[in-house]
Amino acid sequence: MHEKTEAMLPAVTEVLDAPERLGALYAAVPDMAIPDGDFEGLARLAASLFDAPIALVSLVDREWQWVKAAVGTTEARFRSEESFCIHTITEADDHAFVVLDASRHPAFRSWRKVAGAPFLRFYAGVAIVLDGQAVGTVSVLDVAPRLEVTAKQQDELKKIAGIAASMLKLKEEARRRALKEAALSREEQRLAMALDAANVGSWLWDIRSGTVAGNGAMMRMFGLPSERTIAAKAVFSAIHPEDRIPTFSKLRQAMAANEEYDGMFRIGANGRWLLGRGRVHDRDSKGAPLTFLGMTVDVSEQQAAVQRTRLLLKELNHRVKNTLAMLQSLARQTLRQTSDPAAFMTAFAGRLQAISEAHGLLSDYEWGTIRLAELISKQLLPYVSDYGEQVELHKDEISLGPDQAVGLGLVLHELATNAVKYGALSVPKGKVVLTARRVVEDGESVLHLTWTEVGGPAVREPRRRGFGSILIERSLDKVIGSSVKVEYLPAGVTALIRLPL
User: Fold this and answer.
1) What angle do the packed helices 372-380 and 402-421 form, to 10 degrees?
2) Is the pTM of this model over 0.85?
C-alpha cells in the first residue's frame, strides 16, 4: 500500500502522454465515452469488498478519466488533473494506491471535491494493465476516512482489476473478429454482385444433404426457380439428357482423383451451352468428399461461333473447289478464243476479277446473302467514269445466295466489258439501265433483271458467238431454272436474266 506525500508525487504527465500506453488504450477501446454494462458487476463487487459508497471501473487518457461502469455516481468523466486514478496509473505496480484521508494529505487536501462537496476522503485503486501498459483503474471512494486497508482487500481489488483487463482483451479480440467478419462479408457480397453482374454462376454442392446452393446467375442458367438452395437432383435433371450421364461421371472422376472438374454441357429446357469448373471443397476424416465448389459460365455464343466457323470452313472448301473448276474452264475457253498472250491475260484477268469481287462480298457477309445493288456496283464501277450518270438502277430489295452472286457477277462483268468495247459505255453519253424486279412464279420468288444499253453506237448482231456470249449464257448454269437471253437491238444490247431466288 502506498500513501504518498506531495514530495513523493511524480510528474504524471509523462506517463499519461506515453505513446505506448495511449496506443494500447485506443487499440482496446476506440470509443471510451460509451459506458459498458458488462463492467457493472465488477464495480458492485469492488464497492461491496470495501463497503464503499462509490466504485468505478475507468479508463484514463491524457485529459480525461472515462467511467465505463460505476456505483454511487452518474458522472461519465472526470478531469485527469483532479483524479486519484492518474496516480494509480503512475504506480502501475503490484500494489494498490491508497489515500486514507485526503483532507490531511498535502497533495489532495486543496482539491475541489476534497475541500468541497462531496468531501471525498478515502480512495483505493488498482491499475488495469493491458500489454504491459496501465490504461485504467478499478477504484473505490468514500466520504469518510479510513484507518487502514487490509492486504486481503488489496489482493481482491487487484483480482477485480485483472478480470477487467481480461474482459477488455476479450472485447478487443471480439471486436477485431467482428470487423474481419464484416469485411469478409462485404467482400463476399461484392464478389457475389460481381459474379452476378458478369453472369457467372457460382454454386456449392452439399453432397451429404443432396442440396446445391447457387447464386442468381446459376439458377437462371439452369432454368431453375430463384431459390438459393435447391435439390441436387433438380440441378442434374436440368442438364440435357444426352449430356447428363457424361457430366455426372466426369464430376465423380474429379472427386475420386482429387482433381478439378472441367466440362461443357447443355441445358435441356433452353439448349444453352454451359462451361462448368470446380473441385472438392472439403472432405471428412476418411477422405470422403463433403462439399463441391464450382462455377458455370454461359458459352452458348462461343459454341454458336464455333459451329458457324465449321460451317463456313465447309462452305469455303466447297466454294474453293467450285471456283478452281470454274477458273480452269475459264482459262481453257479464253485461251481457245485468242492466240495473243496479252489479249488472253486481259480477258482472263477481268473475268478473274469479277469472280474475286463476288467472293469478296460473300466473304464480308460470311457466305450468307448479299444485296443485288452491292453486286451491281462492284462489277460496274471499274468500267464507268461517273457511276451516277452512266448507271441507272430500278430495283426491288433483293438478296442473293453464293451461287447466284458468283454467276450473276460474271454475267454483269461480260456485259460491262462488251459495253465498254462496242456498246453504250464506249461513248461519254452512253449509259446502262438496269431493272430488277422480284416476281412470284408458281409460288416461288424469281428475279427478273433487264440490262439495257442506251446512247451508244448502233448495234449489229455479231456473225459468230464469242466466248463472252457463251459465258454469259452459261454462268448461271449452277442455279437451276435460270436463263440469260441477249438481244442485239439497233438501239443497244439488251439482256434478259431470269434467276430463281
Assistant:
1) 30
2) no
Instruction: Please state, in angstroms and rounded to a whole number, the distance separating the CA atoms of residues 75 and 302.
Output: 71
Give pLDDT tens digits for 109-141: 888 999 899 999 999 999 999 988 899 899 999
Q: What DSSP state is assigned to residue 61?
A: -
Owner of C-alpha cell 482496446: 28
Say what the pLDDT of residue 122 is. 95
Sole residue written with cell 471535491: 113
Helix axes 151-197, 40-50, angle to 10 degrees: 180
Whether residue 83 contacts residue 108, with contact meaning beta carbons closer than 8 Å, is answered with no
Report phi then psi at 65, rounded to 5.
-105, 115
| Cα–Cα distance, 402 to 420 (Å, whole number) | 27
Contact present, 338 and 373 (Cβ < 8 Å): no
Q: What is the pLDDT averaged over residues 246-256?
A: 89
**Looking at per-residue confidence, does 268 or 314 come out higher?**
268
Strands 54-60 and 492-500: unpaired
Residue 6 neighbours by CB under 8 Å, 6+ apart: 105, 106, 107
Average pLDDT of the residues of the chain:
82
The C-alpha angle 465, 468, 471, rounded to 5 degrees, equals 105
